[in-house]
Amino acid sequence: MGPFELPDFYLPYPAxxxxxxxxxxxxxxxxxxxxxxxxxxxIWEERRFDGMDYGLLCAYTHPECDAAELDLVTxxxxxxxxxxxxxxxxxxxxxxxxxxxxxxxxxxxFMTDDPPEPVNAVERGLKDLWARxxxxxxRLWRERFTRTTHELMQESMWELFHxxxxxxxxxxxxxxxxxxxxxxxxxxxxxxxxxxxxVPERVVGSRPIRVLTETFADxxxxxxxxxSYQREVEEEGELSNCVLVVERFLGCDTQxxxxxxxxxxxxxxxxxxxxxxTELPVLFAEYALPPxxxxxxxxxxxxxxxxQSGGHEWHMRSNRxxxxxxxxxxxxxxxxVMGPGGLRNHTHVPHRKVxxxxxxxxxxxxxxxxxxxxxxxxRATLDYAEAMGFYTxxxxxxxxxxxxxxxCAAGIDPDASLEELVLATDWLSWGTYGDDYLPVVxxxxxxxxxxxAFNRRLxxxxxxxLVVTAVAANPVERGLADLWLRTAxxxxxxxxxxFRAGVEAMTAxxxxxxxxxxxxxxxxxxxxxxxxxxxxxxxxxxxxARLAPGxxxxxxxxxxxxxxxxxxxxxxxxxxxxxxxSYQxEIEYEGELHNMVLVVQTFFDCDLPRAAELVxxxxxARMRQFQKVAELDLPALLDDxxxxxxxxxxxxxxxxxxxxxxxxxxxxxRECRRYDEATLKGSRWVPGPTGLGTAGTRIGTLLGRTxx
Length: 708
Fold this sequence. Notes:
Elements: H1 21-35, H2 46-52, H3 54-61, H4 67-92, H5 97-107, H6 121-133, H7 139-165, H8 171-181, H9 184-195, H10 207-235, H11 242-250, H12 254-286, H13 291-315, H14 334-338, H15 374-388, H16 397-403, H17 405-412, H18 418-443, H19 448-458, H20 475-488, H21 493-518, H22 525-535, H23 538-547, H24 555-558, H25 561-581, H26 583-589, H27 596-604, H28 608-640, H29 645-671, H30 677-681, H31 691-695, H32 699-707
């Protein structure tokens, strides 16, 4: 008997079977034997290989490719599953962390033009497949495929570390890391190869393409977690499985955890569909894609869709998984339509009277220090805002004074000079004002196209040569032009480009918020967390952190898993902190949709106290993760790099800054008047989404330091 009954899967696309399935079975079995994958019965033997039926998997997931392409794709999947099982037997069961990492490092050499001589079946298979796959594909596709293959292999170390530590991830960490190191992004690259297209280079990094790929990846991984729970958790001692993650986080039984995991899977599929039908047409128009490029994008989306439906059919038939009693074929129930990610997300009634939200217990291990220039910065930012025209619409001087953004900046960087603190506070004022301005000017009229045009113009006020030729037409443009010249001057051209890209990511996310308002759509929880980081200014934050004078942290540390995990945890903590304090302001007074408490309420269909409790638990989990990374993972990384004292000091300084940042934001929320009901009732304007939470409170101090 299995650990739970398989849930009611949302199956919106019927699977199709490639007619070359039998030839793929015959070919790939011979190829596996030739590579030596059937030599060790402890890993695979012929009967088990036949039962797993990778030919059927690829015939279902790639129903339209020709026989030669199906053979190639099937060999890739045989290789990847063999690699997974070989790593399990060789390194996971023995807990050989050092040997496992050396093994993976050597595999990277087989994705080059001059690979070494292979010494085992995994290396032999990768060398053969690489030579058969990359010719004819573009350099950019090769780079993406190399990266996703590397990350897929590194998944094994991530899982091994969790087993070694006895650690189960928190839900946000799990989704993020599983996507990064799981196999689905790699599968998405192979979809391009199999359907004979490449996503056009100029849109491959756009939000719609990113979301299609990421929702595909999440759905593939969540589905696999449901089918593989018994094998991974009960038989292999695996800890990297979403059902287990939900079980531990919510303290619920396995059946309930499986149903919640399936609800998240359903929600991610709805986001895939929503993106296809509402965001791709806008993308095509915005980039003026010609018909053949539009066709390439649509064939890619169709290929991802085929993979989803075909992958489910294979899971139901393979002897690799627990699969009794589940549905196959086309299946859409009323709950799939009305539940998480479906119509439920479009039924929110704005401006409901919710009253003050009782706050859950907030875990904060850091203390606030104060900057001696606070009083001067308070006066200066009010004068700056008046000069830029902020008080002609949306804000007045009294309300801005009550927001006390200088208090936030002063706690974030208690050691800043007066000049640095004033610049930091001005950036906080601009970001907060801009995020309030957009919904007032464009939100009431649902002028989505006007908002996109407004957002595009902002880049004109951040020229890389520092010569602003555009004429500001509103306070947001005027404020940005002023701040850009005050901030970007000391930067290198590369630094300016990186900084501008971070600002653009933040302002573009404001348009995403408006699009959801046009559709009255409460975001999916994963989409919300990840976009909230952008509205929060995380990309700009990281750019500025790298550019800060005197900071000697190399790119391999900035891009490392510990550093990115720590920064994301800190950002998520503060985003959710803001959502707790701003709940009444946003939901009751602004008719807002972008608040983690509301997102949790909608996904779980639970009452307000339970939603607030869950948000508080997520905050605590992210803070605990921040502490673990800072105290254990980053020092271990630096030890592995044999880092010198200067690098260690620079990393320690950055970790301390993040602690100051989180403590200061909590203090600011408790002491400012932005969220007081009296302030809200007396507001001259009905503001938009809360600016401090979305404009990024980390921005200010780093901008100040960059300018010094």
